[in-house]
Amino acid sequence: GQNIDQPTEMTATEGAIVQINCTYQTSGFNGLFWYQQHAGEAPTFLSYNVLDGLEEKGRFSSFLSRSKGYSYLLLKELQMKDSASYLCAVRSSGGYQKVTFGTGTKLQVIP
Amino acid sequence: DVKVTQSSRYLVKRTGEKVFLECVQDMDHENMFWYRQDPGLGLRLIYFSYDVKMKEKGDIPEGYSVSREKKERFSLILESASTNQTSMYLCASRPGSQPQHFGDGTRLSIL
After folding, report:
1. Which of B13, B25, B82, B85 has the fewest Cβ atoms surrounding its Cβ within 10 A?
2. Residues in chain A with pLDDT < 50?
3. pLDDT at A92
Protein backbone atom coordinates (compact mmCIF):
# COMPACT_ATOMS: atom_id res chain seq x y z
CA GLY A 1 0.00 0.00 0.00
CA GLN A 2 0.91 3.68 0.04
CA ASN A 3 1.01 6.27 2.81
CA ILE A 4 1.52 9.96 2.05
CA ASP A 5 2.01 12.73 4.61
CA GLN A 6 2.00 16.47 4.10
CA PRO A 7 1.22 19.37 6.45
CA THR A 8 -2.41 20.35 6.66
CA GLU A 9 -1.99 24.11 6.50
CA MET A 10 0.73 26.71 5.97
CA THR A 11 0.80 30.50 5.90
CA ALA A 12 3.36 32.61 4.07
CA THR A 13 3.85 36.24 3.11
CA GLU A 14 3.47 37.69 -0.35
CA GLY A 15 6.85 37.89 -2.07
CA ALA A 16 8.43 35.26 0.18
CA ILE A 17 9.49 31.65 -0.48
CA VAL A 18 7.62 28.66 0.93
CA GLN A 19 8.50 24.96 0.95
CA ILE A 20 5.77 22.34 1.20
CA ASN A 21 7.04 18.92 2.24
CA CYS A 22 5.69 15.50 1.37
CA THR A 23 6.86 12.16 2.74
CA TYR A 24 5.67 8.85 1.40
CA GLN A 25 5.91 5.13 1.95
CA THR A 26 5.15 2.89 -0.97
CA SER A 27 5.67 -0.73 -1.97
CA GLY A 28 6.70 0.30 -5.50
CA PHE A 29 7.52 3.82 -6.66
CA ASN A 30 7.10 5.14 -10.18
CA GLY A 31 6.91 8.91 -9.87
CA LEU A 32 5.61 11.76 -7.76
CA PHE A 33 3.26 14.54 -8.86
CA TRP A 34 2.33 17.90 -7.41
CA TYR A 35 -1.07 19.43 -8.16
CA GLN A 36 -2.53 22.81 -7.29
CA GLN A 37 -6.20 23.09 -6.37
CA HIS A 38 -7.99 26.39 -5.80
CA ALA A 39 -11.10 26.29 -3.65
CA GLY A 40 -14.07 24.90 -5.57
CA GLU A 41 -11.98 24.04 -8.62
CA ALA A 42 -10.35 20.96 -10.12
CA PRO A 43 -6.73 20.05 -9.35
CA THR A 44 -4.27 21.18 -12.02
CA PHE A 45 -0.92 19.55 -12.70
CA LEU A 46 2.19 21.43 -11.52
CA SER A 47 5.18 19.11 -11.64
CA TYR A 48 6.44 15.56 -11.94
CA ASN A 49 9.57 13.89 -10.49
CA VAL A 50 10.67 10.33 -11.13
CA LEU A 51 14.45 10.68 -10.62
CA ASP A 52 16.24 12.24 -7.65
CA GLY A 53 16.88 15.94 -7.85
CA LEU A 54 15.28 19.25 -8.53
CA GLU A 55 12.87 20.09 -11.34
CA GLU A 56 12.41 23.80 -11.93
CA LYS A 57 9.46 25.39 -13.70
CA GLY A 58 9.33 29.14 -13.38
CA ARG A 59 8.48 30.17 -9.83
CA PHE A 60 7.78 26.55 -8.85
CA SER A 61 10.37 23.83 -8.22
CA SER A 62 9.96 20.29 -7.00
CA PHE A 63 12.56 18.07 -5.38
CA LEU A 64 12.65 14.30 -4.92
CA SER A 65 14.76 11.94 -2.83
CA ARG A 66 13.66 8.36 -3.49
CA SER A 67 15.93 6.86 -0.81
CA LYS A 68 14.33 9.10 1.84
CA GLY A 69 10.76 8.88 0.48
CA TYR A 70 10.69 12.67 0.47
CA SER A 71 9.68 15.45 -1.85
CA TYR A 72 9.10 19.16 -1.54
CA LEU A 73 7.44 21.84 -3.62
CA LEU A 74 9.15 25.23 -3.51
CA LEU A 75 7.20 28.33 -4.41
CA LYS A 76 9.19 31.53 -4.93
CA GLU A 77 8.06 35.15 -5.11
CA LEU A 78 4.72 34.24 -3.65
CA GLN A 79 1.66 35.92 -5.06
CA MET A 80 -1.82 36.17 -3.55
CA LYS A 81 -3.14 33.91 -6.32
CA ASP A 82 -0.90 31.12 -5.00
CA SER A 83 -3.33 30.68 -2.10
CA ALA A 84 -4.60 27.17 -2.79
CA SER A 85 -4.26 23.56 -1.71
CA TYR A 86 -1.21 21.68 -2.94
CA LEU A 87 -1.60 17.95 -3.42
CA CYS A 88 1.25 15.46 -3.40
CA ALA A 89 0.52 12.25 -5.33
CA VAL A 90 2.58 9.08 -5.72
CA ARG A 91 2.34 6.65 -8.61
CA SER A 92 2.97 2.99 -7.99
CA SER A 93 5.00 0.71 -10.20
CA GLY A 94 2.27 -1.89 -10.49
CA GLY A 95 0.56 -2.84 -13.75
CA TYR A 96 -2.13 -0.17 -13.54
CA GLN A 97 0.26 2.52 -12.23
CA LYS A 98 -2.19 3.61 -9.58
CA VAL A 99 -1.85 7.18 -8.29
CA THR A 100 -2.51 7.85 -4.60
CA PHE A 101 -3.04 11.39 -3.34
CA GLY A 102 -2.08 12.96 -0.03
CA THR A 103 -4.67 14.97 1.84
CA GLY A 104 -3.21 18.25 0.59
CA THR A 105 -1.60 21.32 2.14
CA LYS A 106 -3.73 24.45 2.27
CA LEU A 107 -1.47 27.44 1.68
CA GLN A 108 -2.61 30.91 2.64
CA VAL A 109 -0.61 33.84 1.26
CA ILE A 110 -0.98 37.00 3.29
CA PRO A 111 -0.04 40.57 2.33
CA ASP B 1 -6.00 21.47 -24.49
CA VAL B 2 -7.42 18.42 -22.79
CA LYS B 3 -11.06 18.74 -21.82
CA VAL B 4 -12.66 16.55 -19.18
CA THR B 5 -16.34 17.38 -18.81
CA GLN B 6 -18.56 16.31 -15.96
CA SER B 7 -22.27 16.51 -16.62
CA SER B 8 -23.28 18.49 -13.53
CA ARG B 9 -21.51 20.92 -11.17
CA TYR B 10 -24.14 20.53 -8.45
CA LEU B 11 -26.61 17.73 -7.86
CA VAL B 12 -29.12 17.04 -5.11
CA LYS B 13 -30.67 13.59 -4.76
CA ARG B 14 -32.64 11.66 -2.17
CA THR B 15 -31.62 8.64 -0.14
CA GLY B 16 -32.27 5.41 -2.02
CA GLU B 17 -32.21 6.97 -5.48
CA LYS B 18 -30.03 5.57 -8.24
CA VAL B 19 -27.63 8.32 -9.27
CA PHE B 20 -25.59 8.61 -12.45
CA LEU B 21 -22.54 10.87 -12.76
CA GLU B 22 -21.23 11.25 -16.28
CA CYS B 23 -17.73 12.12 -17.45
CA VAL B 24 -16.53 12.69 -21.01
CA GLN B 25 -12.99 13.36 -22.26
CA ASP B 26 -12.07 14.52 -25.73
CA MET B 27 -8.45 13.37 -26.06
CA ASP B 28 -8.76 9.63 -26.68
CA HIS B 29 -7.19 8.78 -23.30
CA GLU B 30 -7.09 5.11 -22.36
CA ASN B 31 -7.29 5.62 -18.62
CA MET B 32 -10.16 7.22 -16.73
CA PHE B 33 -10.74 7.60 -13.00
CA TRP B 34 -13.41 8.51 -10.46
CA TYR B 35 -12.42 10.05 -7.13
CA ARG B 36 -14.30 11.54 -4.25
CA GLN B 37 -12.85 14.37 -2.22
CA ASP B 38 -13.77 15.01 1.40
CA PRO B 39 -12.29 17.47 3.92
CA GLY B 40 -9.41 15.93 5.80
CA LEU B 41 -9.44 12.78 3.67
CA GLY B 42 -8.19 14.13 0.36
CA LEU B 43 -8.82 12.48 -2.98
CA ARG B 44 -9.78 8.82 -2.73
CA LEU B 45 -9.99 6.55 -5.74
CA ILE B 46 -13.36 4.84 -6.25
CA TYR B 47 -12.93 3.06 -9.60
CA PHE B 48 -10.77 3.34 -12.66
CA SER B 49 -10.79 2.02 -16.19
CA TYR B 50 -7.84 1.41 -18.51
CA ASP B 51 -9.85 0.50 -21.59
CA VAL B 52 -13.37 0.24 -22.95
CA LYS B 53 -15.51 -2.19 -20.93
CA MET B 54 -12.63 -2.67 -18.47
CA LYS B 55 -12.88 -1.54 -14.85
CA GLU B 56 -10.90 -1.95 -11.67
CA LYS B 57 -11.82 -1.22 -8.07
CA GLY B 58 -10.02 1.58 -6.35
CA ASP B 59 -9.70 2.09 -2.61
CA ILE B 60 -13.36 2.74 -1.77
CA PRO B 61 -15.62 1.00 -4.33
CA GLU B 62 -18.38 -0.03 -1.93
CA GLY B 63 -21.76 1.41 -2.89
CA TYR B 64 -20.57 2.40 -6.37
CA SER B 65 -20.36 0.86 -9.81
CA VAL B 66 -19.05 2.16 -13.12
CA SER B 67 -19.66 1.80 -16.83
CA ARG B 68 -17.34 2.39 -19.77
CA GLU B 69 -19.13 1.49 -22.98
CA LYS B 70 -17.22 4.03 -25.09
CA LYS B 71 -13.63 5.19 -24.74
CA GLU B 72 -14.53 8.82 -24.17
CA ARG B 73 -17.20 8.25 -21.50
CA PHE B 74 -16.87 6.91 -17.95
CA SER B 75 -19.98 6.83 -15.76
CA LEU B 76 -20.14 6.49 -11.99
CA ILE B 77 -23.30 4.93 -10.57
CA LEU B 78 -24.56 5.11 -7.01
CA GLU B 79 -26.86 2.10 -6.88
CA SER B 80 -28.86 3.30 -3.85
CA ALA B 81 -27.65 6.69 -2.67
CA SER B 82 -26.95 7.21 1.02
CA THR B 83 -26.16 10.35 3.00
CA ASN B 84 -22.53 9.28 3.50
CA GLN B 85 -22.08 9.57 -0.25
CA THR B 86 -22.52 13.33 -0.07
CA SER B 87 -19.20 14.56 -1.44
CA MET B 88 -17.29 16.23 -4.26
CA TYR B 89 -16.81 13.77 -7.11
CA LEU B 90 -13.93 14.29 -9.52
CA CYS B 91 -13.35 12.52 -12.81
CA ALA B 92 -9.89 12.36 -14.39
CA SER B 93 -8.29 10.93 -17.50
CA ARG B 94 -4.75 10.36 -18.67
CA PRO B 95 -2.93 8.89 -21.66
CA GLY B 96 -0.55 6.10 -20.65
CA SER B 97 1.67 7.18 -17.77
CA GLN B 98 1.20 10.94 -18.22
CA PRO B 99 -0.28 13.22 -15.51
CA GLN B 100 -4.01 13.11 -14.94
CA HIS B 101 -6.37 15.82 -16.18
CA PHE B 102 -9.35 16.51 -13.97
CA GLY B 103 -12.88 17.65 -14.65
CA ASP B 104 -14.43 20.52 -12.68
CA GLY B 105 -16.12 18.18 -10.23
CA THR B 106 -19.69 17.42 -9.22
CA ARG B 107 -20.79 18.46 -5.76
CA LEU B 108 -23.37 15.82 -4.84
CA SER B 109 -25.71 16.18 -1.88
CA ILE B 110 -27.81 13.23 -0.74
CA LEU B 111 -30.76 14.24 1.44
Report:
1. B82
2. none
3. 86
What pLDDT is recorded for position A62? 97
CA distance A76 to A19: 9
CA A90 – CA A61 distance, rounded (Å) = 17
Closest residue in chain A to residue B45, using alpha carbons only? A100
Residues 6 or more apart from A89 whose CB is under 8 A from it? Answer: A4, A32, A33, A34, A35, A99, A100, A101, A102, B43
Interface membership of B41 toward A (CB under 8 Å): yes
Picking from B36, B95, B45, the residue whose alpha carbon sits closest to that of residue A99 is B45
Amino acid at A29: F
A43 vs chain B: nearest CA distance in angstroms? 6
| Rounded-to-integer distance, Cα B83 and Cα A57, Å | 42
B97·A44 Cβ contact <8 A: no
Q: A89: which chain B residues are within 8 Å (Cβ-Cβ)?
A: 43
Name the stretches of chain B with pLDDT < 70.
1-2
A10 touches chain B (CB under 8 A): no
Tell me whether residues B100 and A91 touch, CB distance under 8 A: no
